[in-house]
Amino acid sequence: MINPWMAAGRAQDEYANGTAWVPAELTGWRRWTLKPEGLTGSYQQPWPGTDMTAECLARWEVEISRERYDELREQPGSGVLARIYDSGMVYGTRTVYGTHVPADANARFFEPNVGRNHTAPHHNPQDRKDDFKCGIYAAYEYSKLQTQWVTDPSTAFVGVVKASGRTICGTSGFRTARARIVALCVGLEDQHRDLVAEGRTTPRRVSPAGVRSGTVPLGDPEDRVAEVERNRRKDLAGFPAYAGVELFADLREMQAAFPPEDLSALGVGGDAA
Predict the structure, then answer these.
(1) pTM above 0.70?
(2) Are 239 and 47 in contact (CB under 8 A)?
(3) Is 72 helix (H, G, I), strand (E, B) or coil?
(4) How many CB atoms lie within 10 A of CB 110?
(5) Is residue 251 part of a domain?
(6) Per-residue pLDDT of the chain (273 residues; tens, 9 = 90+)
(7) 29 plus 150 within the same structural domain
């Protein structure tokens, strides 16, 4: 299994460093996890609607004991447990991102100037302490998306955004000031499809009211996959904020609909490699 923090570090290097420019709109690919609060990014930042404006999130150092973790595990609505568990760490000390102190864990503020002196995306390669690499991240195309650790394939969605405003381009992707979701795939990615087909994961159903376990047929593997994909479409339909987003049943169809843009004139992207 790929270490999610190492993958995130590579993504920052490949997406965050490069030319700053202001496009009319730039196509990008992202992944989200569907939660009761809506589609949520890899740093646990919810997208309550299709449009998102970047902000430099405060960083909190959270300490959680094994005993406290066991207590929170019995409380499905615990936001801080979701942040810790969904990032692949069950207990210990780690950094989480957000604008509010997690009330149900021991926490202390870390780097208090974050988000106070600039708007996102901010990039200062000459001053490491002032180089926050904030902004909304996206890849130029699906093949350049970093592999991400997910708790449940049935709630992991890949989609397409249109970015605008100040944008900093890297070799594999970019980070930008604003983005809106234009397409989502209800079909499973290949690696997730295999997990479901082989019965190696227990699907979950998600709605604004909460999370519950899903049901999967015990017979043919294709039936398992089809059932999960039908439920993914139903679950997404329960969030009116995404009603205008184009849905694709197959990832390859979505790739064909949103081919890589030619950014060779800027010296970035697949055509410039």
Answers:
(1) yes
(2) no
(3) helix
(4) 13
(5) yes
(6) 334 333 444 555 565 565 556 557 899 999 999 999 999 987 778 899 999 999 876 655 556 667 766 766 666 555 555 555 544 445 555 555 554 445 554 544 344 344 445 788 887 777 766 677 789 999 999 999 877 666 688 999 999 999 999 898 888 899 999 999 999 999 999 989 988 888 888 889 999 999 888 776 677 889 989 999 999 999 999 999 999 999 999 999 999 999 998 887 777 754 443
(7) yes
Residues 148 and 221 in one domain: yes
> For residue 89, which phi and psi values (nearest 5 degrees)?
-125, 125
Would you tell me how many other CB atoms lie within 10 Å of the CB of residue 39? 27
Residues paired with 179 in a beta bridge: 52, 163
Given a contact cutoff of 8 angstroms between Cβ atoms, the answer to whether 63 and 110 are in contact is: no
Q: Is 269 domain-assigned?
A: no
Same domain, 8 and 100: no
Range(s) of the domain holding residue 76: 58-114
Please choose, from the candidates 74, 72, 117, the residue with its C-alpha nearest in 3D space to the C-alpha of residue 91: 72
CA angle 169, 170, 175 (to 5 degrees): 55
Contact call for residues 205 and 235 (beta carbons, < 8 A) = yes
* Total domains present in the chain: 2
Q: 39 with 64, same domain?
A: no
Distance CA 72, CA 133 (A): 31
